[in-house]
Amino acid sequence: MQAIILAGGLGSRLKPFTEVVPKPLLPLGEKSILEIQIERLRDHGVTQIFLAVNYKADYIESFLGNGERYGVELIYSRESKALGTCGPLSLIRDQITGPFVMMNGDILTKLDFSRFYQFGCDKDFALTVGTKIITTPFRFGDVKSSEDQLLSVTEKPELNFEIMAGIYFMTPKVFDYIPEDTYFGMDNLITTLLAQGQPIGRYLIREYWVDIGMIEDYEKAKKEYPLL
């Protein structure tokens, strides 16, 4: 099984940490985020992982090596310019041999990748998007009314949103919709597929998941993840 990890971002919202260490290599306990991702994928049958790198690419490659110590083969795909979240796929399309998993390099999750992969294989979708329901507190009271009469109020309700979780299952069919050497995001791919009448799968992630994109998220993950 093959997988791709997008590890080329600048990590601007995590400065000053990322001025020295690239975001995917920030530590969580005794391991970096990227090492945890690699070992999770390995434990679910992934044997070859492509790392799409740009910012501090030399640092990442010298730190991780060829993957031998993690029990996988690591292949580095270097971008000469920013290509977004889907553009990097155009650089390795000839090396992809079948369905694969792609994930952002700042996601920490206990997702059962084996089940996710099998779900994608069982469906006839070129793209299956992993989603997650997140709960956000609302800092005002929510009022229900009818004309000039107040009917009810809920003090500081919690709002639920289903979001894209930065984890995807794809088949080589997606390469037909991704331009060569061009900035192309996941939103562009989804819009293109829908515009051409191509159905897109959705897989709700019920396991632990956090996007380590901001300092408060990173600090939260450092406390939570080692205890899971």
TrEMBL record:
Domain Nucleotidyl transferase: 3-225
SUPFAM superfamilies documented for this protein: Nucleotide-diphospho-sugar transferases (SSF53448)
Protein's name according to its UniProt entry: Sugar phosphate nucleotidyltransferase
Source superkingdom: Bacteria
One matching Pfam family: NTP_transferase
